[in-house]
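Format notes (please read before filing issues)

Several people have asked whether sequences and structure tokens are stored in separate files. They are not. Every record keeps both together, in the order shown below: the sequence lines, then the token lines. Line labels are part of the format and must not be stripped during preprocessing.
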Amino acid sequence: MNAGGRVAERLLDRSALPALTVAPGEAARARELAARHGMTAEREIDLADAVITRVERFAAAGDPVAVVDARRTLSYADLAVEARKLATLFEAQGVRPGDVVGVGGERSAVVVAAFLALELLGALYVPADETWPAARVRDVLAQAGAALLLTVDAGEPASALVAGAAEAGVPIVRADLAADCAPWAGHARLESLDQPRYVLFTSGSTGKPKGAVVEHQGMINHLYAKIVDLDMTGADVLAQTAPLGFDISVWQMLCPLVLGGRVEIVGDDVGHDPVAFARLVDDHGITIVELVPTMVRHLLDDLADAAPGSLGALRWMIATGEELPAELSRRWLTTMPHARLLNAYGPTECSDDVTHHTVTLGDLSLLRLPIGVPIVNAQLYVLREDDDGAWHACDLEETGELFVGGVCVGRGYLGNHERTRDAFYRDPFAGTPTGRLYRTGDAVQLLRPGAGGDARPTLQYLGRVDRQVKINGVRLELGEIEAVLQRHPDVGAAAVVVHEFPAGGR
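Then the structure lines:
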């Protein structure tokens, strides 16, 4: 069976995706506006390179440190051997190309090796976080059709992982069994660039998780987008702070390995303690950290108790996963002027981030910070729907919904054709490698050059399109009201809801 075949049978073919209804002449106008305003970013990248192949090249050329966790330090050669032993273990358990394999437990060097092992076999990675309840583990493994669950912890696996796997009828295999295996001897099975590489589950509006499938080409493109925009080199040390179920965990554990850099895996015991985390950054020379804005706020709040000069090695702080408030950015820029602040935005369905914006003091005059410009090989379109259901292209300062095209767009939701048709379309604008267009559901506008601190047009996030309300005939964006409230230095977070009073009463 061809690599990806088993998963491909449960994915909606591109030809079966709905066509986006575009008003006459608007397809050409959307292409022209995207090109004129810098919403396309073409760059030549070798998308056929496997991460494990890069790891073995660095192992053969000096063998630097690759991954550090709380228990072990692995060189590139150590990591490659561990990945190949795990590949042998997987194959002995019947894993074949195109199978989905669960990996569960604490984030650790073993998780990185397991991902690379699945890349060798042409199988797909799906994480099962040890903090999930058993019902969530069951739903993810069952919907993914996982062939097995690899548990990576040194001791007994979390009870929720055991119970969830049992309820899903998925066998559990312990990673430590690979120690007695011979290293797998084959080459990485990459038969096509659109080969599915991993599945990540997001919560749907119904509460049931949806399994977004990301292709090899989208994953590799995102790794190189980070390298390009962060000016990463083999000297960088990236902290892996994200839980395994978050999409950002994938680039955090892989990106340095493409360059000969180091992955520093940060456990929750340190990651949730700002002072201990600052000490780890200093002691291990960590240069790049990615956190949700809430955690950035906690870190700044507690830095007064840290040693002077804390985070001195840091080059970049990346904020993602939540809207980045302007006031929090002001605090970061004034407290940590040596470390640049990147506002990143992107959906799991599009291989993680699709825009980057380096925040400057000039941006702080805006009500809401820009989310930036597209990463390499992404195409972004701002469209509005008329009353007849046809879509029109938006120009500067016009509010519309963001659509994403390009190599980053994933394959849809595993085994869920209905939800796939709700969010994915055949791309009417460009002949991209995927031929798909993703509807984000996010309201945005293109800012004029010079708005904030950027000389180029940039995108500004305005909130979810389904959070727009009409009160007394006036359309209001609840996210804009929250943004105003969060500008006050004494407001840490804000949430705005609409309450309807009964007629004639309060």
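For reference, the curators noted about this record: The chain is about 30% helix and 25% strand. The radius of gyration is 23 Å.
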